[in-house]
TrEMBL record:
<protein>
    <recommendedName>
        <fullName>adenylate cyclase</fullName>
        <ecNumber>4.6.1.1</ecNumber>
    </recommendedName>
</protein>
<feature type="binding site">
    <location>
        <position position="380"/>
    </location>
    <ligand>
        <name>Mg(2+) 2</name>
    </ligand>
</feature>
<feature type="transmembrane region" description="Helical">
    <location>
        <begin position="612"/>
        <end position="636"/>
    </location>
</feature>
<feature type="compositionally biased region" description="Basic and acidic residues">
    <location>
        <begin position="40"/>
        <end position="49"/>
    </location>
</feature>
<dbReference type="Pfam" id="PF16214">
    <property type="entry name" value="AC_N"/>
</dbReference>
<feature type="binding site">
    <location>
        <position position="424"/>
    </location>
    <ligand>
        <name>ATP</name>
    </ligand>
</feature>
<feature type="binding site">
    <location>
        <begin position="996"/>
        <end position="998"/>
    </location>
    <ligand>
        <name>ATP</name>
    </ligand>
</feature>
<comment type="function">
    <text>Catalyzes the formation of the signaling molecule cAMP in response to G-protein signaling.</text>
</comment>
<keyword id="KW-0115">cAMP biosynthesis</keyword>
<feature type="binding site">
    <location>
        <position position="337"/>
    </location>
    <ligand>
        <name>Mg(2+) 2</name>
    </ligand>
</feature>
<feature type="transmembrane region" description="Helical">
    <location>
        <begin position="179"/>
        <end position="200"/>
    </location>
</feature>
<feature type="transmembrane region" description="Helical">
    <location>
        <begin position="703"/>
        <end position="724"/>
    </location>
</feature>
<feature type="binding site">
    <location>
        <position position="909"/>
    </location>
    <ligand>
        <name>ATP</name>
    </ligand>
</feature>
<dbReference type="InterPro" id="IPR032628">
    <property type="entry name" value="AC_N"/>
</dbReference>
<dbReference type="GO" id="GO:0007189">
    <property type="term" value="P:adenylate cyclase-activating G protein-coupled receptor signaling pathway"/>
</dbReference>
<keyword id="KW-0812">Transmembrane</keyword>
<feature type="transmembrane region" description="Helical">
    <location>
        <begin position="207"/>
        <end position="230"/>
    </location>
</feature>
Length: 1074
């Protein structure tokens, strides 16, 4: 085979979009804040099709992001992607607003109950305001739960309950009728500060601003009210200092939670986006394959073949399944270019193919306009049908309009080439058998006696006229003026059929033109499809589809049917295993939160409680233990900084799920134990007197209520532990809450009763207040329940996102399977190297895909006596059984191409019972060239091995047919023609692709078959000289008259040295059969 010469370079470049320069962005694995993978930077492109748990994404490095550690940089560099994520993030946060509303209701209802228990007239204003807040919260809950507000308003809803909750806290402080102390509502304020990070759909800087402002307002309000009303009662400095440490702790926990939630949400978002992206890409590719498939095969045939892909189907236990059906009242149109030889003499092969491509692309547009189904392109012949596979009553009228339009269309070629070319069109109406034959290079074909007559109507017609049979006139409905065609005087087959023919003289009823029918104007073809979508538009469409998919999923998915209400585990154990495998395994940063709580609580404790050696030792021991719990897991990722045993233990810890859970739970228990120990370090004896300022040696705890605030921070820390699942967190949260409540109300009640006596006793209001021990129990329960709801909500969100990704992956797999089937069909329609160029690209109809091959081989193998075998009677099911047998023959031929020895041979097509193949066209088969591009004088055996293989293939065809004859008691024979030389291979009609080869080499090969003798292989002298080098033997036939070539000396192959011993081919007739 010669080196390929590209006739038309295909522009496959796509514009890439980058919203940020590479200097301002890096790539990061979004895997969460894992101790062993914190901030792993990746270089390279983002892999949008990666549906695994690690998704690479460009991270913004500009602005304030530069100031953050690499592990805390999370904002996407792509602003469009970041905007889409923010919209998605808002929707996720908005769903959490119900939790915030529930908390606000808890607070209001609890406060109202406490006020009512110890009711006085001064408590009417706060009760009234809190009652209004209750109503607003209930209304908000109903509106959000049942989505009774618009999406636009829905975006702002999280702020309303947050503002309500803050207002409720300040109402309790500002309208409190009892003595105001700095510790009032500090626990609620800490909780509000934390919720600012986990509930509000805002960037981190805004969350920090709102939380800090709320803490600042609380501090200012408390200081001002305390100083104005009771300036001599308490020294508030220490208490305010304690408050600040608690607020700082709540904010740090909120920031940690924010980063974990944000990174996990981004990870889930990217995974969902990646899965959807792959799904969309595969869908688009599948649709393109399907479009390509349906452009060649009718839908009912394509659907059946796709359904059967991968199965070896044998019908009736004897024959392969044939995709063939009979259609009645079908008009068949054949159109041939008259004067094509004249064009060939004035144009190069490449120019000729380009002209044919443009002309046939126009014919395809006309076929679409006139509801024709193009069957095949045979050299310069175009034929199509109307009335099948979908029957139409106007099939004949449409076919005539098609023929007239083709005659008009050739005028452009006539002007372009300045030759006297024209179209000769023949139409016949009858019954056809339509389907595909063989196992490779499928093309929809129609066969039958009426198809043969339609072909003769074309050859017996006149240039520039539409020639129709008498059977076609029966369906004309008087829409055309006719004149005698006299086809029987020009074509023997028409005369033998005794058929009258006619020529179209004029159109009586014009075809109704419309906007959709304006296919081309002034010879220019307009593509109805918009093929100019660039990469940016595709990305925008993907983002839009992703957001719409998220909205739709939220509206339609009922996750309650997929998970257990109590354990929150999936009913599907395989899905639960996958989810658990994708859950963040460990995070030292989350455990670091326990150290933060311990330190902040200790400094707060130092501000308001006696400084004893016992409390200091407790803090030191707790800090050491929590440091070990935090630092040890880092050893696996930084082995050089730790001793070997620590590294081994860390690796073991990360491998064992039960050990990781135990490690995390132990850290929480150490933290809780330290805070509980602080309580036991206080003197709980009831006393009515204070010693202010506090005596450093005294064990009196004048503000025991702060111990409940420490407990709240411990409960909040439980929610931060991302490595624990819902059930584990609840199993920690509930016992801790119970322990705290028992301590407050049963074990250490005197601690809080002493506080009440000290606070209220001098005002004679003790009888009209609720005991502190009970109020903090209620507070602990309310906050614990709210955290439980929040933990559950987070779990639902993550599991819902996992289901979306899981379903997208499942859909992707189904689509991929469908795509593989379609792709297999496409590769059975076009040669592999051509199909690869078509799949995934969009081409215009007039776009030519062709390549020149300087040294190729071409073979035509026909079965001339098959026509005698073919009959359309009831015994043969109107010819279907005959074609079933032909399908077996062609399929056996196709199977030969699977053999390694024939790897350089590709099937081109079948024409009735004629099999056409070529060699030397496969990719990778090339002739060595010199540096200047000229071909080297390679040995003949190296250059033409593929031609020898093609000749061996001809032998194999004969042997295959002989075997079939022996099994079926038939006497079919092959007549084979072979030739070599330059050809052009390519696809005509990109929207309805038809692969073919053209050139003098193809024409001569065809003539070698048609002028040959049954049972023999004929070739010209040049081919004989090449094949002799491979040991083939020949018999000279002599001069043979070849159409368009004059007389050529031809030879018959007689055998091959070492194979047939120079003897004649098996069962080779010595005389002509026909």
């Amino acid at each position: 085979m010669g080196g390929g010469k590209t006739m038309l370079e295909m522009n496959k470049s796509r514009r890439s979009i980058r919203s940020k320069s590479q200097s301002q962005a890096s790539l990061i694995k979004v895997k969460g804040l894992e101790g062993e993978d914190n901030g792993t930077l990746e270089k390279g492109r983002r892999k949008s099709e990666n549906s695994q748990s690690t998704v690479q994404v460009e991270i913004d490095q500009s602005g304030l992001q530069r100031l953050l550690p690499s592990s805390l940089r999370h904002r996407f560099a792509d602003q469009q992607l970041e905007s889409l994520y923010r919209a998605y993030y808002c929707r996720q946060k908005n769903s959490a607003v119900l939790v915030l509303i529930i908390l606000s209701l808890f607070f209001c209802v609890t406060s109202i109950i406490l006020y009512c228990i110890a009711f006085t007239e001064k408590k009417i204003p706060p009760i009234a305001i809190l009652s209004v807040c209750v109503v607003i919260n209930i209304v908000m809950f109903i509106l959000l739960k049942f989505r009774l507000i618009s999406d636009k308003l829905f975006m702002y809803t999280p702020f309303i309950p947050w503002i309500l909750f803050a207002t409720e806290i300040y109402v309790v402080i500002g309208l409190e009728s009892e003595p105001i102390v700095p510790s009032l509502a500090v626990g609620w304020q800490c909780f509000l500060a934390y919720l600012s990070y986990v509930m509000l759909p805002l960037p981190l800087r805004w969350c920090m601003l709102l939380s800090s402002l709320s803490c600042l307002v609380h501090t200012i309000v408390v200081i001002v009210i305390c100083i104005l009303n009771y300036p001599n009662v308490y020294q508030i400095g220490n208490a305010v200092g304690a408050n600040i440490f608690l607020f700082l702790c709540a904010n740090i926990l909120g920031i940690i939670s924010y980063f974990f939630n944000d990174i996990n949400q981004r990870k889930a978002f990217l995974e969902t986006k990646a899965s959807l992206n792959v799904k969309i890409i595969i869908e688009e590719g599948s649709k393109e394959q399907e479009r390509l498939l349906l452009s060649v095969l009718p839908k009912h045939v394509a659907d059946e073949m796709v359904q059967d892909m991968g199965d070896v189907l044998v019908a009736d236990g004897q024959f392969r399944k044939i995709y063939m059906s009979r259609h009645e009242n079908v008009s068949i149109l054949y159109a041939d270019i008259v004067g094509f030889t004249a064009i060939s003499s004035k144009c190069t092969a490449g120019e000729l193919v380009k002209i044919l491509n443009e002309l046939f692309a126009r014919f395809d547009k006309l076929a679409e306009k006139y509801h024709q189904l193009r069957i095949k392109i045979l050299g310069d012949c175009y034929y199509c049908i109307s009335g099948a596979p979908e029957p139409r009553s106007d099939h004949a009228v449409l076919s005539v309009h098609m023929g007239l339009a083709m005659v008009d269309a050739i005028s452009d070629v006539r002007a372009q080439t300045k030759t006297d070319v024209n179209m000769r069109v023949g139409i016949h109406t009858g019954a056809v058998l339509g389907g595909v034959v063989g196992q490779k290079q499928w093309q929809f074909d129609v066969l039958g006696k009426d198809v043969s007559l339609a072909n003769k109507m074309e050859s017996g017609g006149l240039a520039g006229r539409v020639h129709i049979s008498h059977s076609t006139t029966k369906f004309m409905h008087g829409e055309f003026e006719l004149e005698p065609g006299d086809g029987d005087q020009r074509e023997e087959a028409i005369r033998m059929a005794g058929m009258k023919t006619y020529l179209i003289k004029s159109v009586i009823k014009p075809y109704p033109e419309g906007t959709l029918d304006e296919i081309y104007v002034g010879g220019m073809i307009f593509d109805q499809d918009d093929d100019d979508n660039n990469e940016q538009n595709k990305e925008e469409n993907l983002n839009k589809l992703l957001y719409e998919a998220i909205v739709e999923k939220e509206a339609t998915q009922d996750i309650g049917k997929r998970i257990n209400f109590i354990t929150m585990h999936y009913h599907d154990t395989n899905m639960e295993e996958l989810f658990d495998r994708n859950r963040q395994k460990f995070s030292s940063v989350a455990i670091l939160g326990t150290c933060v709580v311990l330190v902040c609580c200790f400094f707060s404790y130092v501000c308001i409680a006696p400084k004893s050696l016992f409390s200091i030792l407790t803090f030191i021991i707790g800090a050491l233990l929590l440091t070990v719990f935090t630092v040890f897991p880092f050893a696996a990722s930084s082995p050089k900084r730790f001793v070997g045993c620590a590294v081994s233990f860390s690796q073991w810890l990360l491998r064992k799920p039960w050990l990781r859970a135990g490690w995390t739970i132990s850290a929480i228990l150490v933290l809780a134990a330290c805070n509980i120990v602080y309580m036991f370090g206080c003197d709980s004896n009831i006393s009515n007197t204070f010693s202010l300022p506090l005596n450093s040696e005294s064990l009196n705890c004048e503000y025991p209520v702060y111990f409940s605030y420490y407990g709240i921070l411990v409960l909040i820390e439980v929610t931060v532990l991302v490595q624990l699942g819902f059930l584990a967190k609840i199993l920690i949260l509930v016992p801790l809450t119970v322990v705290y409540c028992v301590l407050y109300a049963i074990v250490l009640p005197n601690l809080f009763d002493r506080y009440d006596i000290a606070l209220y006793g001098s005002y004679n209001t003790l009888a009209t207040t609720v005991s502190t021990k009970y109020s903090i129990v209620g507070k602990a329960i309310a906050i614990s329940l709210t955290l439980a709801f929040y933990i559950r909500h987070n779990e639902v969100v993550m599991r819902k996102l996992f289901i979306w990704k899981y379903e997208a992956d499942e859909a992707k797999e189904l689509i991929q399977k469908q795509r593989e089937k379609n792709e297999a069909l496409v590769y059975n329609i076009l040669p592999a190297h051509v199909a690869r160029d078509f799949i995934g690209t969009k081409k215009r109809d007039e776009e030519l895909v062709s390549q020149a091959y300087d040294e190729a081989g071409v073979i035509f193998a026909s079965c001339p006596n098959f026509n005698d075998f073919y009959t359309e009677d009831s015994v043969n099911n109107d010819g279907l059984e005959c074609l079933r047998f032909l399908n077996e023959i062609i399929s056996d031929y196709d199977e030969l191409l699977n053999e390694a020895r024939f790897k350089n041979i590709i099937k081109i097509k079948t024409i009735g019972s004629t099999y056409m193949a070529a060699s030397g066209m496969n990719l990778g088969y090339s002739i060595p060239k010199k540096e200047n591009g000229a071909k080297q004088d390679a040995p003949v055996k190296e250059r033409w091995q593929h031609l020898a293989d093609l000749t061996d293939f001809a032998y194999a065809l004969k042997e295959t047919l002989d075997r079939i004859n022996s099994q079926s008691f038939n006497s079919f024979v092959l007549r084979i023609g072979i030739n070599q030389g330059p050809i052009i291979g390519g696809v005509i009609g990109a929207k309805k692709p038809h692969f073919d080869i053209w050139g003098n080499t193809v024409n001569v090969s065809s003539r070698m078959e048609s002028t040959g003798q049954a049972g023999k292989i004929q070739c010209v002298e040049d081919t004989m000289l090449i094949l002799k080098e491979f040991g083939f033997t020949f018999e000279k036939r002599g001069f043979v008259k070849v159409k368009g070539k004059g007389e050529l000396i031809t030879y018959f192959l007689t055998g091959k040295d070492g194979k047939n011993g120079g003897s004649p081919l098996p069962n080779q007739p010595q005389d002509d059969i026909f």
